[in-house]
Design goal:
Layout lengths: L8 E9 L6 H14 L4 E7 L6 H11 L3 E6 L5 H11 L2 E6 L10 H12 L3 E8 L5 H17 L8 E8 H9 L7 H7 L4 E7 L12 H15 L2 H29 L7 H34 L6 E4 L36 E3 L3
Parallel strand pairs: 1-2, 1-4, 2-3, 5-7, 7-9
Antiparallel strand pairs: 3-8, 4-6, 5-6
Membrane topology: Multi-pass membrane protein
Family: Belongs to the glycosyltransferase 2 family.
Pfam families: Glycos_transf_2 (PF00535)
């Protein structure tokens, strides 16, 4: 059975999940009434990003009583953005909403997003966190620093405090599917496309259960991916450091010649040692920055899939529930042997009802 063509339903809700078994029941309890009240044909694409807990089992239990729930399971943990990519690429809706499973972004706002997209005819509706008082001070400060840095380094007209809670039209989804991005950062990629957009403001809530999947290490990784994917600023920094080092070496050379001609004695060991350390450090920094970009080119040339889909409950031939460990897994991720991978517009701010 082939997956139905894009646009087969009005609304798709994509939810990346990793070790969220405690959150799933509460998420379904809040999300299902919201979507049922919209009176449109919809699907919920839950992407299990290789969870090591009972997330797959809990999702399968919920799917028995909720036919709109579609489960996409990745064979290994590929990361939040890769799981989000898998969901966006397989969603069939005319409109596609992405939301995290932790309920910090209220599902009730989806109704406002869909209404605004239809009434104003925009392609993107951003969920903007107007109140982040439930986050820690450290989280708020680092988030503010991230958005400030991205605006200046990347140059994208980035909506303030807008994460991965957004609505996209089918036109935007098709463009995203064609892009060759290996490590997409959607909070920068979507604004850079220039589609007309609007904003819905809401209050960020406390995490329903479990622990955050974005600790400091992942936040730093996201900041680096954002910078490296959208800007050559680190390479320019390496260039400027090289020029400054070259200028400094010229000055030291002139100083050394003048001291030699004047008959002055230059202390040898300390000055030479410090100079070698300084220039060696600058060279290593430059080589490291260049190495990061060369590594990305290398990964792109390898053309390895960013994720592998293990199953999709929309296809009865692919089991929605966890497979028997004794059964051999399809090495390429699908039953038939094919890999299934995966200037800004005006914005209008409106308050959320939810």
């Amino acid at each position: 059975m082939e997956i139905s063509s894009a646009g087969a339903v009005t609304l798709s809700v994509v939810i990346p999940m990793f070790n969220e078994e405690d959150v799933v029941p509460g998420l379904v309890a809040r999300l299902r009434p919201v979507l049922d009240a919209l009176a449109v044909d919809y699907e919920v694409v839950a992407v299990d990003d290789g969870s090591g807990d009972g997330t797959a089992r809990v999702l399968a239990d919920q799917a028995r009583s909720w036919s709109h729930l579609r489960i996409v399971r990745l064979r290994r943990n590929s990361g939040h953005q890769a799981a989000l990519t898998a969901g966006l690429h397989r969603a069939r809706g005319r409109w596609v909403v992405s939301i995290d499973a932790d309920l910090q972004d209220p599902p009730e706002v989806i109704a406002d997003m869909l209404r605004l997209a239809r009434e104003d005819g925009v392609d993107v509706v951003y969920g903007v966190r107007a109140d982040r008082s439930t986050d820690t001070v450290f989280k708020r400060r680092t988030a503010g620093l991230y958005y400030w840095t991205m605006r200046r380094v990347v140059g994208v007209d980035l909506p303030a405090q807008a994460g991965d809670f957004r609505l996209l039209s089918r036109d935007v989804i098709e463009v995203l599917r064609r892009l060759p991005e290996r490590t997409p950062v959607y909070r920068l990629l979507v604004p850079s496309l220039g589609f007309t957009s609007a904003e819905v403001h809401y209050t960020r809530e406390v995490r329903a259960a479990g622990r955050t999947k974005y600790p400091l290490r992942r936040m730093i990784g996201l900041a680096w991916d954002s910078t490296a994917n959208f800007s050559a600023a680190p390479l320019r920094l390496a260039t400027w450091l090289g020029l400054l080092s070259f200028a400094g070496s010229l000055l030291l050379t002139v100083f050394g010649v003048a001291a030699y001609l004047g008959g002055a004695t230059i202390p040898g060991w300390t000055s030479l040692f410090v100079a070698v350390l300084l220039f060696s450090a600058v060279q290593l920094i430059c080589l490291g920055l260049l190495g990061e970009y060369v590594g990305r080119i290398y990964r792109t040339v390898q053309d390895r899939p960013a994720f592998l889909v293990g199953s999709d409950s929309i296809d009865p031939a692919e089991p929605a529930e966890p497979a028997d460990p004794a059964e051999p897994a399809d090495p390429v991720g699908t039953r038939d042997g094919r890999v299934r991978s995966d200037a800004p517009g005006q914005r209008a701010a409106v308050p959320a009802n939810g």
